[in-house]
Design a protein that fits this description.
Radius of gyration: 19 Å
Shape: elongated
Number of helices: 8
Strand order of the largest sheet: 3-2-1-4-5-6
Strand content: 5-15%
Order of helices and strands: EHHHHHEHEHEHEE
Largest sheet: 6 strands, parallel
Helix content: 40-55%
Number of strands: 6
Distance between the termini: 14 Å
């Protein structure tokens, strides 16, 4: 499908526009250290991940749901024996994550500036509405986007709704992101274009095993490379 038909380019937010995943990995490591008297780091990490997966349908994505999962996992690991100050530490850990300064992905600001001259740009991300809005405003990137879409999850149904809302066809839509599972596969499945820019840290939940060989798919090492083809 020719790229010349593209009218709208959507960008994922976390780990595509700004750094996000390392904060979660750091919090997991600190969580395991706090609970080491009850369980090994490997076991605690696995149990925390299992709790997160169980809670996803109810809580969704983001730092607040993650914090609730930290507390629930700590209760299970300690068999209800943990002191109240540990609960307070986990709550503070979540608040600290919410207040982390924004670190833009290298080259993303210039890339958005150039692309916004030729295309309608959209930020399409999942997660907590308040947190994602805060990060977008703090990033200074809001001025480049025609539309902001924050959803509970990125599915084919959600992408179809977005394309319809933008009054374009899937063939006129391009999604750019770091997750093959959320940013690439659903978009390809509805007939759109998808560009993958990997981030050095990826949540296990967002990983896939299959190799993607699709005419509407391309992979890049950094954001600035998009300007060579668009």
């Amino acid at each position: 499908m020719p790229l010349s038909k593209i009218k709208v380019i959507a960008f994922d937010a976390d780990d595509t526009l700004w750094v996000n995943e390392p904060f979660f990995r750091k919090a997991e490591d600190e969580f395991c250290d706090l609970l080491q008297e009850y369980m090994s780091k490997e076991e605690a990490n696995k149990l925390l991940f299992d709790i997160e997966m169980q809670n996803l349908p109810l809580y969704g994505y983001g730092i607040k749901p993650f914090t609730l999962s930290l507390i629930e996992a700590a209760i299970i690991i300690s068999k209800g024996d943990m002191k109240i100050d540990l609960v307070q530490k986990l709550i503070e850990k979540g608040k600290t994550m919410l207040l982390e300064p924004i670190e833009l992905i290298d080259g993303i600001a210039k890339t958005l500036e150039e692309l916004s001259k030729k295309y309608r740009l959209v930020m399409a991300t999942k997660g907590d509405l308040l947190d994602q809005e805060r990060k977008l405003i703090a990033s200074g990137l809001e001025k480049y986007f025609h539309h902001i879409e924050i959803v509970s999850d990125k599915t084919e149904k959600q992408y179809k709704k977005l394309v319809k809302h933008l009054d374009i066809t899937p063939q006129e839509f391009l999604m750019v992101g770091n997750s093959l599972k959320s940013d690439v596969l659903p978009v390809l499945n509805i007939g759109g274009h998808a560009f993958h820019i990997p981030f050095h840290t990826t949540w296990v939940h967002e990983m896939i095993d299959e190799e993607i060989t699709h005419s509407n798919f391309r992979s890049f090492s950094k954001a600035s490379e998009l300007l060579q083809v668009l």
